[in-house]
Design a protein that fits this description.
By secondary structure, the protein is mostly beta strands. It has one domain: monomeric porin ompg (Porin, Beta Barrel). Helices cover 4% and strands 67% of the residues. The protein contains 1 helix and 12 strands, in the order αββββββββββββ. A 12-stranded antiparallel beta barrel has the order 1-2-3-4-5-6-7-8-9-10-11-12.
Amino acid sequence: MKHAPLLFALVFLLSASLHAQVVNTEKKRFLSQDKTWAGNVDFNFGLNRTKAGQTLILNTNGQIQLNKNRNKWMFLAGYALTQFLDIDTPGAAPKNFNNAQFTHLRYNRVLSNRLTWEAFVQEQWDEVHEIDLRLLAGTGPRLQILRTDSSQLFFGALYMYEHENTSPEDFMEKNRHSRLSSYVSAGFTFSHFILNHITYYQPRLSQIEDYRINSETSISLQIHSRLTLRTSYTFIFDSRPPQTVRKTRYNLGSGVSFAF
């Protein structure tokens, strides 16, 4: 069949998972900037039964973006679930390897060709990584370092207030911290391929050794005006996570995106 390789790749990517452990809003900025309204919906689903048991993978997220004069609004939401069930053990409870949700609202005010002021609020929980609730609010400048038809580079440095409840080992910890949320963001376009990279550095202002590093690199292939295949690699380091959570995590995933 002439299109067999493409169809095989599409089926494979549909069954893969995009984990939403880290809310990377920066990569979403690469939607069309010349439209008043833009948005996309991502959905990944997989159900696999083997001798070991049954695995369910569900991941969905969406975005709506409004550009009007010097004002830009962006709203994102997502949910991810990866669950395993030992079907040969009667009464066995499913085990979650990923169960997380987020919502995010961001506002940008363009002050000049190179300088933008932005503000955001975010709500998030992550069962597997023992985050019962994380509320974030921040504001600060965003600087355009480079922008051409095929590449762009930005730097941001925002003040961020964090309200976080975690539940390690059956007791709750409540954290109220002020952090710096700085980032470097780059994007490059080659024909139908788009390469995006973003690295966040988020130290606690009163205790610099308490910090997080989130880094993501993604490659997208546009196979239709509204359909894109995407592969991404995410690296996460938290110097002070909940006691039973590893400091270092990573994820390699693929999926599809439909734009409207």
